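Input.
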Amino acid sequence: MTEDEDNQKRSRRGGVTIPVLVIAKGVKLEHATEALNASPSGIFIKTDKPPEVGTRVEILFTPSGDNDSVRVVGEVVRQTEFPIKGIGVELDRKSTPSEALQQYRALVLHAIRHSPDPKDTNDLTPQNESPSASDKK
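Output.
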């Protein structure tokens, strides 16, 4: 196991769907609008045009019903092509104010706790249709 894989396993992660705004090199990334996986130390963001590994990024979250955004700073530490094209961002605890980190963690925990149960998605299959071959185990 590589050190990177070991770090991923040590962090409590959860599948989430959180709208985000990502800024890299002072430019908003129009194609990076959704976080799909998050932990207290990092986040995976779906994007068709990933910035290079090592790029510093700002990530803004706007909790529902809240006027203030939560802003965290991080660095792109990995790019993926499959199964989903995107970037892994490690949060920079020194550049992100502690209050923002606390708000980020609360937002992530809330999203994890309130995300749909994958077992419930089977209930969405219409009664007259059978699941596709890819849905069967």
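The chain has a mean pLDDT of 79.
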